[in-house]
Specification:
Blueprint: E1 2-9, H1 15-28, E2 34-42, E3 45-50, E4 53-56, E5 64-65, E6 71-72, E7 76-79, H2 90-98, H3 107-114, H4 116-124, E8 133-137, H5 144-151, E9 155-159, E10 169-171, H6 177-185, E11 190-195, E12 200-209, E13 212-223, H7 230-234, E14 238-241, H8 248-264, E15 272-278, E16 281-288, H9 298-305, H10 310-326
Parallel strand pairs: 1-2, 1-7
Antiparallel strand pairs: 2-3, 3-4, 5-6, 8-11, 9-10, 9-11, 12-13, 12-15, 13-14, 15-16
Helix pairs in contact: 2-3
Length: 328
């Protein structure tokens, strides 16, 4: 039986969501094949958690000593950390260095997709439309009149590297920018100011399943708030309709562009990409390589729509990680 480290937590405000996602993996993993171990990676330490006991992880080889004094090694890591250090490439680079197989994409793609500006820039070369935006680093000079002229109002101010819609503000007037910048810069040293696209928002699950790129589902997002923010995502302030209410032509266009983005980046594992459809054209917003995986999260809903059990999906992720590791 293979020991699987189900790694959850992280150093960002998304750690609570990650713990719920990790529990979904623990509850649904095929325990006839795998022995799952909760591994909490938190700002106060890395620990294997067994019932009420915690055992410190040895970072030299990602192992731990159990209650019997035995060294426990892992055969593979199932990574389900949202945000840093699990979604931005830091842990992926570490696991690669110590020779540990892990689920999902590599450290470079994790870092690229976590950086909204860079990801959009790369995908533009593959002719994938996106919203017009302006990039600012902390301390940069800026001209609000120019920003408004270029992007219009309303517009969005968002951290360049952050998840779960943390730090995002919908700006409606010139006076709103100061507070929006402060909120975004609290999350990251780089921010994006992005034009408002008035259209249908959809979230598209794209996964690597049984060796093929597969769209697990398209979910239409209808937020009760100004946009699909943290409350809308995790506190029930939105309606999520799977499948999205799109005609056949638009559905096909969304599926094709979502797969094109995934394949163009040479992605691996799970992903969830956000698009806003304007005049029948899907505009790319961002890609999440470790999306929420609690029972209420979008990707599990899409897997259910596609009649893929969470147990089979987890097994597919682990076996794919082991196969990719053996081929290198």
């Amino acid at each position: 039986m293979q020991n699987i480290a189900v790694v959850m937590g992280g150093y960002s405000d998304e750690y609570e969501v990650s713990l719920k996602s990790g529990q979904t993996i623990i509850d649904n993993i095929d325990k006839k094949i795998y022995n799952p171990v909760k591994v909490h990676i938190l700002s106060n330490g890395w620990f294997a958690v067994k019932e009420n006991d915690k055992f410190e992880i040895n970072k030299a080889d990602f192992s731990y000593i159990n209650a019997k004094g035995e060294k426990v090694k892992f055969d593979c890591v199932f990574n389900i950390i949202h945000g840093t250090p699990g979604e931005d490439g830091h842990l992926q680079a570490y696991w690669k260095l110590i020779g540990m197989p892990f689920t999902g994409c590599n450290h470079y793609l994790s870092a690229l997709t976590f950086n909204k500006k860079d990801c959009i820039s790369v995908l533009k070369k593959y002719e994938i439309p996106s919203a017009k935006s302006i990039y600012l680093a902390k301390g940069d000079m800026y001209d609000l009149d120019f920003i408004i002229k270029e992007l219009g109002l309303p517009c969005f101010v968002k951290p360049n590297q952050s998840g779960s819609s943390l730090g995002i503000t919908k700006v409606k007037s010139k006076e709103d920018f100061e507070g929006a910048f402060k909120k975004a810069f609290a999350e990251d040293d780089d921010i994006l100011i992005e034009e408002f696209l008035d259209g249908t928002e959809v979230s598209v699950g794209v996964i690597e399943y049984k060796g093929k790129t597969f769209v697990s589902g398209i979910t239409e997002i209808i937020s009760e708030n100004e946009f699909f923010d943290y409350q809308a995502k995790y506190e029930g302030k939105s309606e999520e309709i799977t499948p999205a209410r799109l005609d056949k032509e638009t559905t096909k266009a969304v599926e094709e562009i979502a797969k094109k983005a995934y394949n163009s980046l040479r992605m691996k594992g799970m992903s969830r990409s956000e698009f806003i459809i304007v005049n029948d054209i899907p505009h790319f917003i961002e890609m999440n390589t470790l999306p929420g995986f609690s029972p209420a999260s979008i990707l599990p809903q899409q897997l259910a729509f596609s009649k893929i059990s969470i147990k089979d999906f987890i097994s597919n992720e682990i076996e794919s990680a082991l196969q990719n590791f053996q081929q290198k």
